[in-house]
Write a structure and sequence with these properties.
Elements (H helix, E strand, L loop, with lengths): L1 H35 L3 E4 L2 E4 H11 L1 H4 L38 H10 L14 H12 L4 H4 L16 H13 L3 H4 L38 H10 L15 H14 L5 H9 L67
Antiparallel strand pairs: 1-2
Length: 341
């Protein structure tokens, strides 16, 4: 009898402990939720409020990103790539260093621009104030915004002129940094590692296809691509190259990527005159010290290294070919076989 009484007391005590713990957790969660609902956002001279942005979120966003902002909305099962999970506050398109929170203006721009090659459209019909309020509500899903500040935005130096030397240097960097392993030698996103990539939640993810797109992942400007190199796309396999690239090298890589796109850009016109072919991953990587290597045999006659003129063509002013500063390269010419077609 005494044993049974003791057992009942123990069970009752356990129930009381669980009840109190649950109540305390509920109160803490409710307090945290209320605290985060006071979240604000600031873009320019506009201030957004989470409580106001809630209605826009429920109307436009909840179907994909879910009621809890965890990317588990009722439409998520049909969407690939999957909607972003706002509770972990990891965002790809940022102007801040890798691992840090984005600026409010980064989220504001993403809402207006949308995400290329995803089901996230641009929400231009929303007013500027609607978008600022929506940013505040998106932030309220993660407690990180209560304890962390956004990172310091990177500095984007002035874009240099497009030259043949810079495009050649970018081609070398594309091979040296092994961009081709994911993006493929022609930029089609079909590199040998493409089918093995996963995002931060271990879901399959495809590399960006430069060959078929006129824009980049986080914008259409050269500055947008430069920023992606230096910040990385957090939550994806695309790392930050801020420790591996000098600013002038990053610009050269941007210019080379422009040659892979379908538009008839100044960069593509220069590459055509150079006779550039896709890189050969098996060939030795040339030096990038000067960015002015002598052209290999597949590059034909080198056009002037002066910057492209406004009409997109290299300067037509007659120039005398300069003697190479270094002995001609002995690197075998790149193969015309892309290897990943």
């Amino acid at each position: 009898m005494r044993t049974r009484t003791c057992m009942l007391q123990l069970i009752l005590s356990a129930v009381v402990v669980v009840f109190l713990a649950t109540a305390a957790y509920g109160q803490q969660t409710e307090y945290s939720e209320n605290q985060r609902l006071n979240m604000e956002s600031h873009v320019g001279n506009m201030t957004g409020h989470a409580t106001v942005g809630q209605s826009s979120y429920k109307r436009f966003c909840i179907g994909c990103h879910g009621e809890l902002g965890d990317g588990q909305g009722e439409n998520a099962q049909w969407i690939d790539p999957k909607p972003r999970n706002f509770t972990i506050a990891i965002f790809r398109c940022r102007s801040t260093p890798t691992g840090t929170l984005p600026l409010d203006s980064d989220l504001y721009d993403t809402i207006g621009r949308g995400m290329l090659n995803s089901n996230m459209p641009h929400w231009l019909p929303l007013t500027s104030q609607d978008r600022v309020n929506l940013v505040a509500y998106v932030k309220h899903f993660s407690p990180r915004w209560l304890t962390e500040k956004p990172g310091t935005p990177i500095v984007i130096p002035p874009e240099p002129p497009v030259t043949a030397d810079r495009i050649r240097q970018g081609r070398v960097l594309f091979q040296k940094l092994e961009c081709w392993k994911c993006h493929g030698v022609t930029g089609r996103g079909n590199g040998p590692s493409a089918d093995t990539l996963t995002d931060d939640e271990n879901r399959p993810i495809k590399p960006f296809n430069f060959h078929d797109e006129q824009k980049f992942k986080c914008g259409s400007t050269d500055q947008a691509m430069y920023k992606d190199f230096m910040t990385g796309l957090d939550g994806s396999p695309m790392p930050s190259f801020s420790d591996n690239l000098k600013p002038e090298e990053a610009w050269s890589l941007v210019f080379y990527l422009r040659t892979l796109q379908p538009d008839n850009t100044p960069e593509k016109q220069i590459a055509k005159q150079l006779g550039l072919t896709p890189i050969d991953p098996l060939a030795p990587v040339p030096s990038t010290d000067s960015g002015q290597q002598a052209p290999s045999s597949d590059q034909g006659t080198t056009p002037s290294s002066q910057p492209a003129q406004p009409n997109g063509n290299p300067s037509s002013a007659p120039t005398q070919p300069a003697a190479p500063a270094t002995p001609p390269s002995t690197t075998p010419p790149p193969s015309n076989n892309s290897g990943n077609e």
